[in-house]
Automatic annotation (TrEMBL):
<feature type="transmembrane region" description="Helical">
    <location>
        <begin position="89"/>
        <end position="112"/>
    </location>
</feature>
<keyword id="KW-0472">Membrane</keyword>
<keyword id="KW-0808">Transferase</keyword>
<dbReference type="Pfam" id="PF06580">
    <property type="entry name" value="His_kinase"/>
</dbReference>
<feature type="transmembrane region" description="Helical">
    <location>
        <begin position="30"/>
        <end position="47"/>
    </location>
</feature>
<dbReference type="InterPro" id="IPR050640">
    <property type="entry name" value="Bact_2-comp_sensor_kinase"/>
</dbReference>
<dbReference type="GO" id="GO:0016301">
    <property type="term" value="F:kinase activity"/>
</dbReference>
<feature type="domain" description="Signal transduction histidine kinase internal region">
    <location>
        <begin position="173"/>
        <end position="249"/>
    </location>
</feature>
<keyword id="KW-0812">Transmembrane</keyword>
<dbReference type="InterPro" id="IPR010559">
    <property type="entry name" value="Sig_transdc_His_kin_internal"/>
</dbReference>
<keyword id="KW-0418">Kinase</keyword>
<feature type="transmembrane region" description="Helical">
    <location>
        <begin position="132"/>
        <end position="153"/>
    </location>
</feature>
<keyword id="KW-1133">Transmembrane helix</keyword>
<feature type="transmembrane region" description="Helical">
    <location>
        <begin position="59"/>
        <end position="77"/>
    </location>
</feature>
<dbReference type="InterPro" id="IPR036890">
    <property type="entry name" value="HATPase_C_sf"/>
</dbReference>
<protein>
    <submittedName>
        <fullName>Histidine kinase</fullName>
    </submittedName>
</protein>
Length: 367
């Protein structure tokens, strides 16, 4: 149909200069105009009991509707209304309505009927005040309807874009935080390995093997936002084993798992900074040095992480960088928002961490 081809030509012309405005696929534009055209033909055909007249008059008028609507949506609004040139916008719409009235009236008179306003009672002439008002209100109705639809769709799309940007920003920040955690850990481990090589210790080969397992986990296994809790615990155990190679052999490390955690998934590298602090700030050479670690799923389907360790009260807990704890707190805020509980306390020479996180996958996805 003529007005459909005209729609496509207008859209393509407008999109040539700015493809970013193509927020609604062309097929929906076509469906809208077909639906609106069909509705008008049937409505006015039923009103006049003359569907042939209704078809002809709408074929004349609809290309004009389309031209006015797309000029308003893709030229007048972006160039003038959004630029706060309100007087120019109103003037252009007014001039467009005047020109449209003249063209529409002449085309109807030449191509459709000499009775220019059959809806009114009696014979009506063109270019009268009442006829101008009636035609103008009809055009404003079409203009307002199409503009309202377009602006609503743009608003919805803008909301989606903002949400997607937030998700991408969240994902980027979380990835950045993870990249900070990994060098921090490897720096400490390589220091341990260096100390053992200086001592020419036979334990150096065991450290290399443990470090290899850890690197495999960090490089290959934690690309996803959530990992198996069992894998994370295995990673923690490897880290503890590395630390124990150079600690007091009498150190008491107790790692307990309560309940079935085989299906549980957690954000990777979430617990290690707290365990690192146990060795960093604990009195590792003391016979009283101990670390208690517990993972448990409570009835509310939350993972409860509990950590206690002895530490040297004379040692300043706040290290000069504070990368580990700061990153972990930031990640918890980003992933869980207010849906987690973290309690950190010190009492005499006992340091405690209690962390509850939900085990609903949707809630801790970093995507």
């Amino acid at each position: 149909m003529f007005f459909i081809k005209l729609t496509l030509m207008i859209e393509l012309k407008l999109y040539d200069n700015n493809t970013s405005i193509r927020t609604i696929p062309k097929k929906y534009h076509i469906l809208f105009w077909i639906g609106y055209f069909s509705f008008n033909v049937i409505r006015w055909g039923s009103y006049f009991d003359d569907y042939w007249y209704s078809l002809k008059s709408n074929l004349v008028e609809f290309p004009l509707h389309i031209i006015l609507v797309y000029l308003n949506l893709y030229f007048f609004i972006p160039k003038f209304l959004l630029a706060k040139k309100y007087k120019r916008y109103i003037s252009l719409v007014f001039v467009s309505l005047c020109l449209l009235y003249i063209v529409r009236t002449l085309l109807n008179y030449v191509l459709v009927t000499e009775n220019i306003w059959p809806e009114a009672e009696g014979y009506q002439e063109a270019f009268t005040f009442n006829h101008i008002i009636a035609v103008t209100l009809g055009e404003l109705y079409v203009l307002a309807l199409a503009t309202a639809i377009k602006l609503t769709v743009d608003w919805v799309n803008q909301r989606k874009r903002i949400e997607n940007l937030k998700k991408e920003h969240l994902k980027s920040e979380l990835n950045f935080l993870k990249t900070q955690i990994q060098p921090h850990f490897f720096f400490n481990t390589l220091n341990n390995l260096y100390a053992l090589t200086l001592e020419k210790s036979d334990l150096a080969s065991s450290v290399v093997l443990k470090l290899s397992d850890i690197m495999q986990y960090v490089i290959y296994d934690i690309k996803e936002p959530n990992v198996s809790l069992l894998k994370e615990i295995e990673y923690i155990q490897n880290y503890i084993d590395l630390e124990l190679l150079r600690c007091n052999k009498n150190a008491n490390i107790d790692l307990k798992i309560h309940g079935d955690i085989s299906q549980a998934k957690v954000p990777p590298l979430l617990f290690l900074p707290y365990i690192e602090n146990c060795f960093k700030h604990g009195n590792k050479n003391s016979n009283d040095f101990y670390i208690y670690i517990s993972f448990k799923i409570n009835p509310q389907n939350e993972l409860v992480f509990n950590l206690k360790n002895s530490f040297n009260p004379s040692f300043e807990v706040n290290d000069k960088k504070g990368i580990g704890n700061a990153n972990t707190k930031r990640r918890l805020d980003l992933i869980f928002k207010n849906r987690y509980q973290l309690d950190i306390s010190r009492e005499e020479n006992i340091f405690s961490v209690n962390l509850n996180i939900p085990l609903t996958k949707k809630e801790y996805s970093e995507n």
